[in-house]
Amino acid sequence: MDTKGEALKLSEEVLKNILDFGTELDEYYRKFRELRLLTDDLSFQSALINVEHAFFMVVQSLNILKDQIKLLEVASKKGEVY
Asked: Where are the domains of the chain?
């Protein structure tokens, strides 16, 4: 079984989906941010800030995933990762 080839194929698919999902996620983040800026209720603003923070954490996780996939691609070509 060509695990390197399968991993590279899967990596390309995941990266494409991350890009698409990231664009959609960014739009949702902007909508929640806009709602926070439009509300006068401080308690609700606090809840919206927490939602914005959660979006930030998801984006950070996606960035880590992209980096690890790139390392996987390097490993499949070179045979090593440091």
From this structure: 3-77
